[in-house]
Design a protein that fits this description.
This protein is α+β, with helices and mostly antiparallel strands. It is 35% helix and 34% strand. The chain has a single domain, classed as Gcn5-related N-acetyltransferase (GNAT) (Aminopeptidase). Helix 4 links the parallel strand 4 and strand 5. The radius of gyration is 16 Å and the shape is globular. It binds coenzyme A (COA). Coenzyme A (COA) binds next to strand 4, helix 4 and helix 5.
Length: 162
């Protein structure tokens, strides 16, 4: 095992994955704001976690007497399809394999719940996202022209069959 892998394993061992609830939102909002051009606000997260078709998870790490959110993911299931609405990792924890492990674990879990295909949309300018999804086995299956109103970028649609 190389040193980088040892570091990755140690970080993942300190983390806990749980369903997102209201108590996580204040900790994850700064990640959201620094990660997305059009960040969701508290109400959007509250809506999401109360939606019966939504699955939202957080990875937390002990931080003083509290837990700090290190990463989160929001997923929506539509019959046997899953849509990844967003995934983000706190900046200081990026490039440590966290998103890869987090998503790989989620894909493994949903494949056991009857999900057959997972879709997402990503900006062509988001090279971190594109590389992450390709590494996980997603393929480009289409695009939505001028989907992102702020930049006029197309959305790249990616899919993985489970
Ligand atoms: C995209 C994001 C979730 C990746 O999280 P991460 O924990 O840093 O990713 P990982 O360390 O698990 O990286 C896994 C793979 O993704 C790719 N990757 C991640 N960050 C990258 C970057 N900045 N540039 C190029 N490739 C990158 C690499 O292929 C990497 O594998 P490698 O380390 O073996 O090269 C993170 O950068 C982020 O939160 N970005 C802002 C939000 C966002 O864009 N979300 C995706 C669209 S919803």
């Amino acid at each position: 095992m190389c040193l980088r892998e040892v570091k990755k394993v140690r970080i993942m061992q300190l983390m806990t994955m749980s369903s997102m609830d209201e108590t996580h939102i204040d900790s994850l909002l700064p990640i959201e704001i620094s990660s997305f051009r059009n960040p969701w606000g508290k109400l959007s997260f509250l809506d999401e976690i109360s939606n019966q078709h939504s699955y939202s998870y957080v990875l937390t790490i002990p931080h003083g007497s509290d837990d700090q959110v290190v990463a989160y993911i929001c997923l929506r299931q539509i019959i046997d399809e899953l849509h990844i609405l967003k995934i983000a990792v706190r900046r200081s924890y990026r490039r440590k394999g966290i998103a890869y492990r987090f998503l790989a674990d989620c894909l493994c879990a949903v494949s056991k719940q009857g999900v057959r295909a997972v879709f997402l949309e990503v900006r062509p300018s988001n090279s971190a996202g594109l590389h992450l999804y390709r590494k996980l086995g997603f393929h480009i299956v289409g695009k939505r022209p001028k989907y992102y109103l702020d930049t006029g970028e197309d959305a790249i649609i990616m899919r993985i069959l489970l």
